[in-house]
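@channel sequence for tomorrow's demo:
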Amino acid sequence: MGGVTKAQIGSFLARQGILIAFALFMIGFALANGRFLDPDNIMGVIRSSAILGVMALGVTFVVISGNLDLSVGSMMSFSTIVVLDLHDKIGPTMAIPLMFSMTLCLGAFVGFLVGYLKLNSLIVTLGMLSAIHGLTLTYSGGKNMDIIDKEGTWFSVFGQGSALGIPVPILIFVLLAAFLGILLSKTPFGRKVYAVGGNGVASTFSGIRRPRVVFMCYILSAFCVATAGLIQASRSLGSQNTVGQGLELEVLAAVILGGASLLGGSGTIFKTVIGVLILGFIQNGLLLVGLQFYVQFVVTWVIIILAVWLDIAAKRGKLWSPIA
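structure tokens (generated this afternoon):
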């Protein structure tokens, strides 16, 4: 048997390098602060990552299908503000399904533009980011939202409740991840998503209705965003109208860190969950070692660049190449 070649080492690092880096981060943070691996801290990190994680689950479908969704942050702000406003007007029982319906309509509109009209997903969702933000400000009149009777509502169960000692946000995240994981890996629809992202032209000639698949991916993304908005609103029972601003980059970073390719056709729900936890624990570790919260933005940027580099390197089997 021959020895391990440089190309094999490069390919391994390209595919697994982010996990190695994560392990080194974990070891370093644990040595820097003994509270890092405390069970309460770990549970707190997972709970705080649940909102980002739920959003990332839906975006995973979009990215695997070969598209992007940069509107999820502003869409989450919209869903949070809407459900808080409707809570006091018509009650939570009616407010929740109405908010989901309104958010799904936004997702359907994006899916129609990208899927059926075949517009560029980056341009469409970047435009929708601003449009939905304006819609949120118009709806709220530029004001933040708060539930009046915070003590007498059962609405708080989604963000503050627990079952069997496990916070409800974590349960929602885990159950939704399990369901969508099965949908992506074990159903004909999931295979169509991979086919469309891997080679859209070939999938069309094989009889797959590409516009419908892309449309449904954006519907799933909108559903996950509405779920995240529900958790956010329930956790604080009040919100700023910009609560989701900037989350779209963190969501995308988590999805790409989990191994989903920006070129489409690859990725899994399980690895997206890992990507979400990587971001969550790195941000928590930075705070525990005494760095300011704004350092997280720099680290997130570095992680995104590293993830994209590793993604491209995995495609060509080398960490670097003299040929662009």
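heads up for whoever presents: Strands lie at 145-146, 162-163, 166-167, 238-239.
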